[in-house]
Inverse folding.
């Protein structure tokens, strides 16, 4: 496409795109990407600290997927898939015992719904979902309901949703009962900053789920695969859920892939002795996506990405925490967990100003949520790119009139 | 890993009953594919009339689509929210232009079930406080927990029941039943313009339009699920064209990338879009997709749509479909004890058989002859339809080859007393609950 037609894209986009994309559009057109850099049609480059993805154009993944594309991208689902078998073995290696059985599908969203379906299969008559407030387990119907969006319409689904304050063991214990279908959480909640769920709270959750026979579901779309500085977010406490959901970064920046991993006992209780097509989809676990995920997982292990992510958080802290407190500063606090970073501003308007100034300085951040900004660079972001991210953040702060000198760590 | 080790991995870490099935049906490992053919790791070639129930519209590994897919991978495959990318925006516009009326708002997602879920949430909001959804009995809309709520095949729902309460099921093709079910509390009707799955049924001319009109009369929304039928499979670019029907939402997926990447779309009318965004409490994230609209899938879809249009595949499907369907009907007439009828339209065709055991037998014997068919995997249907869904690029010679092998297979199967299949059917219905050693002994599997 030539540059003349690039100029027409924003109008086409506004004409046809759904609101969730149109509302977030910056107006920038990306034509290529590598590492954490997005190359724009107008010749500028943006650094991605928004996607929380895998990273762009990581060559082992690209080459493996291209080779699979030439051979057999999707399966006709009659014969056996070696690529799928290899992926589920890799996932078994990644996950702690007893999580050993994987359901592979097209997205993290689908994977979460799959985990919930597993819970429903175990206890079809139950209709109460406990969710640690602030968790965003996905954007299909039940994920949306659990995120507290559209509850007035989604009452049709017939589920009662009970939000539990993070780390509030007493209210968790008081809310769990025999009508509870599942307890859903993210190991690190991104709501009003970052909140790590504590071992004591998760141990209570584990005990409660065992007592009441309901499923404990960890959504690791944002924390898994290294983002939290550990191979999985659940490794932060060592408390093992019944189902673990991994999402979109799993596709190696190439293809949408999602998976939930559960135990053999639970899988057998729902799907054992039943038609193998009781759950599944047309393209879930297709060869190209399995190859992408397998190669991506091996790359993460080989490159010690979790440790590198931990290093990102440290670099952020070193850069911003050492400065003296400045009462003039607009920036209040920051929080770090592995490579996950949140920054707090005095209100939504300064947060929005900082977001815009960063964009102007060549740094793409997620749109602020209230007065918080979250940095979510790709997993494979290099140290050099991260240094640039921090420089651009600093420049954005200066331009927005918020002196970063006063950042304080509050975790 | 050798074949047995691969199956063992599937057993331990994926889907144990699928592993049993692989063993007992002596399946091999897929390796590569081209045109209408699949090759396993041992070099055996199979003519693909299964096509993952209708996905490979432009033929396997279509060079034109492949080149576009690889090229896009090398540039940018996925995208953060907020960014626009030419292939993504291009696909949105392309679909809007291809579709009739004001179907202009395009949600790109990763699977048919995701597309259905967007539609379900949209209709519940746009027609609130209406809550009832009507779907056809035996219809298929996907198996995510959300989509399961509106799935008409009870064998897939039962283990998870109770689901959404206000969903009503009416017999497909029965306008009177639909009319009786309609009232002012119905938010939407979801309908496949041709009923797919193991119950393949082509409605009488005018049915789809009448459903649309009933929806209009009662203020309900009309959702056409064209996930299986669109892009030429049913002999038209979109099956709604047969009746000139105009849905409020259309769902698309399978053929869109011609089998090179997963993608789906929920396309809404401008009118519905305005209703939704005009709601005082509308939140854009109510209708979002976490990882939809990847440039990789979009570029692949654009290349596939180019090919479909350039080669006029819908017309080809209609022309070759006549040949395939008449061949299937001829054989159906020859073996009335085994085959009830041969429903079909375009290259969406099948054999409605005596029972699941007959379906399994034909699939197995055809597999030995090197032909893959779309087995329904539905042992609870009384008369499942064994599907014949070749790529739309299939040649006349390949259709003849399939029909020849089918004739030979039916001759072999027809030489057995039909009562045998009625007895076998008792086993087929319970096959996943039988002890493995028994199933393996029955099917001659050596366990090493
Ligand atoms: C008519 C119809 N709707 C929905 C779906 C669900 O699509 P997916 O399997 O991609 O989730 C299918 C899949 O077979 C289908 O045929």
């Amino acid at each position: 496409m030539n540059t003349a037609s690039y100029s027409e894209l924003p109008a086409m986009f506004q004409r046809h795109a759904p609101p969730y994309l149109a509302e977030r559009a910056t107006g920038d057109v990306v034509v290529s990407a590598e590492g954490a850099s997005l190359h724009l049609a107008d010749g500028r480059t943006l650094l991605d600290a928004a996607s929380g993805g895998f990273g762009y154009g990581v060559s082992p993944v690209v080459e493996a997927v291209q080779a699979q594309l030439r051979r057999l991208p999707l399966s006709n689902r009659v014969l056996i898939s070696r690529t799928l078998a290899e992926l589920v073995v890799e996932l078994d290696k990644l996950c702690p015992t007893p999580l050993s059985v994987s359901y592979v599908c097209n997205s993290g969203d689908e994977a979460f719904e799959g985990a919930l379906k597993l819970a429903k299969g175990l206890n079809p008559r139950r209709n109460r979902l406990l969710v640690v407030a602030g968790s965003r387990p996905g954007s299909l119907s039940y994920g949306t309901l659990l995120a507290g969006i559209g509850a007035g319409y989604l009452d049709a689904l017939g589920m009662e949703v009970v939000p539990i304050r993070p780390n509030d063991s007493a209210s968790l214990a008081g809310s769990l009962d025999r009508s509870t279908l599942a307890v859903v959480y993210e190991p690190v909640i991104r709501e009003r900053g970052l909140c790590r769920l504590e071992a004591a709270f998760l141990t209570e959750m584990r005990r409660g789920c065992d007592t009441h026979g309901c499923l404990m579901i960890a959504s690791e779309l944002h924390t898994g695969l290294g983002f939290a500085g550990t191979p999985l977010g659940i490794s932060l406490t060592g408390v093992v859920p019944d189902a673990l959901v991994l999402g979109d970064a799993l596709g190696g920046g190439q293809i949408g892939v999602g998976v939930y991993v559960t135990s053999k006992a639970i899988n057998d209780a729902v799907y054992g002795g039943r038609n193998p097509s009781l759950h599944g989809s047309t393209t879930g676990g297709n060869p190209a996506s399995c190859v992408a995920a397998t190669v991506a997982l091996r790359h993460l292990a080989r490159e010690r990405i979790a440790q590198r992510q931990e290093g990102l958080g440290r670099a952020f802290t070193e850069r911003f925490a050492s400065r003296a407190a400045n009462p003039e500063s607009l920036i209040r606090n920051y929080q770090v967990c592995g490579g996950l970073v949140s920054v707090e501003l005095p209100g939504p308007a300064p947060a929005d100003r900082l977001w815009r100034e960063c964009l102007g300085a060549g740094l793409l951040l997620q749109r602020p949520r209230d007065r918080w900004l979250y940095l979510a660079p790709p997993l494979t972001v290099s140290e050099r790119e991260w240094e640039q991210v921090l420089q651009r953040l600093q420049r954005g702060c200066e331009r927005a009139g918020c002196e970063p000198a006063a950042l304080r760590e509050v975790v | 890993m050798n074949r047995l080790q691969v199956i063992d991995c599937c057993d331990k870490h994926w889907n144990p009953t699928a592993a049993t099935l692989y063993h007992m049906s002596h399946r091999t490992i897929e390796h590569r594919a081209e045109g209408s053919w699949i090759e396993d790791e041992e070099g055996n070639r199979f003519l693909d009339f299964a096509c993952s129930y209708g996905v490979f519209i432009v033929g396997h590994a279509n060079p034109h689509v492949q080149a576009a897919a690889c090229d896009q991978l090398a540039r940018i495959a996925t995208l953060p929210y907020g960014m626009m990318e030419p292939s993504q925006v291009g696909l949105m516009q392309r679909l809007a232009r291809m579709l009739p009326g004001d179907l202009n708002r395009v949600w790109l997602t990763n699977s048919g079930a995701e597309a259905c879920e967007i539609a379900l949430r949209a209709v519940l909001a746009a027609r609130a406080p209406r809550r009832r959804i009507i779907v056809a009995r035996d219809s298929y809309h996907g198996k995510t927990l959300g989509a399961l709520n509106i799935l008409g095949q009870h064998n897939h729902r039962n283990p998870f029941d109770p689901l959404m309460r206000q969903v009503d099921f009416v017999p497909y093709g029965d306008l009177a039943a639909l009319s009786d079910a309609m009232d002012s509390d119905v938010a939407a009707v979801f309908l496949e313009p041709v009923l797919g799955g193991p119950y393949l049924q082509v409605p009488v001319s005018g049915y789809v339009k009448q459903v649309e009109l009933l929806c209009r009369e009662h203020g309900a929304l009309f959702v056409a699920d064209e996930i299986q039928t669109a892009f030429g499979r049913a002999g038209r670019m979109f099956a709604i064209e047969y009746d000139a029907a105009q849905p409020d939402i259309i769902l698309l997926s399978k053929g869109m990338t011609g089998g090179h990447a997963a993608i789906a779309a929920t396309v809404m009318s401008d009118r519905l879009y305005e209703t939704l965004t005009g709601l005082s409490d509308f939140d854009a994230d109510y209708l979002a997709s976490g990882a939809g609209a990847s440039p990789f899938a979009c570029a692949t879809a654009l290349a596939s749509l180019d090919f479909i249009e350039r080669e006029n595949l819908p017309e080809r499907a209609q022309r070759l479909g006549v040949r395939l369907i008449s061949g299937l009907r001829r054989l159906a007439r020859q073996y009335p004890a085994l085959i009830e009828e041969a429903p079909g339209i375009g290259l969406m065709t099948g054999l409605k058989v005596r029972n699941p055991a007959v379906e399994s037998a034909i699939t197995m014997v055809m597999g030995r002859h090197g032909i893959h068919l779309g087995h329904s995997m539905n042992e609870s249907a009384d008369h499942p339809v064994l599907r014949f869904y070749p790529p739309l690029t299939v040649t006349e010679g390949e259709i003849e080859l399939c029909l020849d092998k089918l004739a030979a297979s039916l001759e072999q199967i027809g030489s057995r007393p039909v009562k045998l299949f009625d007895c076998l059917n008792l086993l087929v219905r319970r096959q996943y609950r039988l002890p493995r050693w028994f199933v393996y002994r029955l099917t001659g599997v050596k366990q090493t």
Residues 59-302 of chain A form a domain with the Aspartate Aminotransferase; domain 2 fold (CATH 3.40.640.10). Chain A touches chain B through 125 residues (CB under 8 Å).
